[in-house]
Amino acid sequence: MRKLILVGGGGHCKSVIDTVRRLQRYDEVVIVDAAYPDCRKVLDVVAVGDDAALPELKKAGFDEAFVSVGSVKSTALRRSLYRQLKEYGFSLPAIVDPSACVSPYARLAEGVFVAKGAVVNADAKIGRMAIVNTRAVVEHDCVVGDFAHVAVGAVLCGGVSVGIDVLIGAGATVIQGIGIGDGAIVGAGSTVVRGVRAGQNVKGLVK
């Protein structure tokens, strides 16, 4: 009997729940959220407490947990929750929507979320806790770093290297072979045709 804890009950959690239900992999799913008891239920999944409930849930046979908090400007909360779950000994699965196209030659690390209609092509490598959001494209030979977020409809052409804690905004395009440094933010709708330094925020046509 497989049991899953979702940590965080906000908007991103709804996307994760929908995928988890479509996978039909888990017999029991619950949410823990710092807003409990205000967060009592998300879609059809019940919140059973805040983070303090995690040790008891582990004892009750919940061996898998997934961080269902999204990230836009900061990955600090996702990082903190990840460390907490690892300390408690939870396994963090990669969760891939059935509608996504993920090459058998791609590699997904723990805690990755690949959303509806996304593509992860051959020899792509997706790091720990990264998000490849709805209809995003990660082409062949790309590397997406830990805790990075490739947002809705963004496109990474072949051989792009994305560092840790990077946000590639919704609808952005990064052309082939470009490197995006750690902690950089690429604004929504941008087109990136040159490298982006670590910590740099860019938008529009980046050349």
**Mean pLDDT, all residues:** 97
Main sheet properties:
7 strands, parallel
Number of strands: 24
Give the percentage of residues in beta strands. Answer: 25-35%
Q: In one word, what is the shape?
A: elongated
Radius of gyration: 17 Å
Number of helices: 3
Q: Give the neighbour order of strands across the main sheet.
A: 6-9-12-15-18-21-23
Structural class: alpha/beta
Instruction: Return the string of H and E elements.
Output: EHEEEHEHEEEEEEEEEEEEEEEEEEE
- Range of helix content: 10-25%
N-C termini distance: 52 Å
Low-confidence stretches: none
Quick rundown:
This protein has 207 residues and is an alpha/beta fold. It has helices spanning 11-23, 54-59, 76-88, and strands spanning 3-7, 28-32, 41-42, 45-46, 64-67, 95-96, 101-102, 107-108, 113-114, 119-120, 125-126, 131-132, 137-138, 143-144, 149-150, 155-156, 161-162, 167-168, 173-174, 179-180, 185-186, 191-192, 201-202, 205-206.
